[in-house]
Amino acid sequence: MRIAAEGLGVKGPRGWAVRGISLDAEPGALVAVEGPSGSGRTCLLLALTGRMKVAEGTAAVGEARLPKQLAAVRRVSALAHVPGVTDLDPALTVGEHLRERALLQRRFGDSLRGLLRPPGERAAEAGRRVDAALAAAGLDLDALPKGPRTAVRDLERLEALRLSVALALIGRPRLLGVDDTDLKLSDDEREEVWALLRSLADAGTTVLAVCSEAPEDALRVSTGQIRDEEPAEQGPQAGDEEPAEEGPVTADQQPAEEGPQAGDERTAVVEDADQGEGKADAIAETGRA
């Protein structure tokens, strides 16, 4: 799936997360969203997969245009290993995660024609999808300590990432977004992750991978620190005259009290009349209540 963006910007409650992103990736490309933590990498990943609204610029994912066709982009994309979005439940086993995702795909991901097929055919299709996703993610259930009954809390970081990728692939997305691909991994494990993502891209799936350091063969998109800060209050500039401090006012300096002027009595009478009318209106309102 082709991704094209020009001048893309994503804005959050605290200001701009990322701005000025331009990208042109062909179908089956491996795109590395590179930058330090907190530079808007995940926001860009969510925006390009239809999970976060674009605030400025233009973008197209396949035939869908952002930000107007978010739902269309979500239907053809999937996310993996995104904190707060695709978190694995540590109390569940690997097999339970796979069965749950397959059930959700059968209920909500298939077409109406697929839902009308016999239950046996649908179950067999779900099993084939799970097996294909595990093979593509490189996760061997037999190599786990307790096989599919292994709890997620007992998985290594690389195994947990592979499981998250496998769950995303069950829906057969054309665009896959993976967050924190190299977080807390050794050099050898990082090489394994990039080899996995390259294999998915070679199979035709466009891959967006967030990382702190991109490999040389990936299409790089760099993010930077962008903040929409309020301007600081400016102090007195050079040449500005500060007002002199005022000392106590002497009796000679105090203004003399002014006596009643011509026309003051007329003003007082008008004010008294206005106040009387206001009171009368208030009494009338109270009576009506």
List keywords for this structure.
289 residues, Rossmann fold, 2 domains, five-stranded parallel beta sheet, four-stranded antiparallel beta sheet, 8 helices, globular, nucleotide-binding, ABC_transporter-like_ATP-bd
| Largest beta-sheet characterization | 5 strands, parallel
Provide the structure class.
alpha/beta
Tally of distinct domains: 2
CATH superfamily of the largest domain: P-loop containing nucleotide triphosphate hydrolases
Strand order of the largest sheet: 6-7-8-3-9
CATH architecture of the largest domain: 3-Layer(aba) Sandwich
CATH topology of the largest domain: Rossmann fold
Strand content: 15-25%
Can you count the beta strands? Answer: 9
The overall average pLDDT, rounded, is 82
Q: For the terminal residues, how far apart are their CA atoms?
A: 70 Å
H/E element string?
EEEHEEHEHHHHEHEEH
* CATH class category name of the largest domain: Alpha Beta
Which spans of ≥5 residues are poorly predicted at pLDDT below 50?
Answer: 226-289
Rounded to an integer in angstroms, the radius of gyration calculated over CA atoms is 33 Å
Count, helices: 8
Helix content: 25-40%
General form: globular
Descriptive report:
Mean pLDDT is 82; it is low at 226-289. A hairpin with a 2-residue loop joins strand 1 and strand 2. This protein is of the alpha/beta class and 289 residues long. The protein has helices at 41-48, 70-75, 94-109, 112-115, 119-137, 157-169, 187-202, 264-288, and strands spanning 3-12, 15-25, 30-34, 56-61, 64-66, 77-80, 175-178, 206-211, 219-222. The relative contact order is 0.16. It folds into two domains: 1-76 and 175-187 and 195-228, 3-Layer(aba) Sandwich (Rossmann fold), CATH 3.40.50; 79-172, no CATH class. Helix 3 (94-109) packs across helix 5 (119-137) and helix 5 crosses helix 6. The strands form two sheets. The chain has a five-stranded parallel beta sheet with strand order 6-7-8-3-9, with helices on both faces. A four-stranded antiparallel beta sheet has the order 2-1-4-5. The protein is built from eight helices and nine strands.
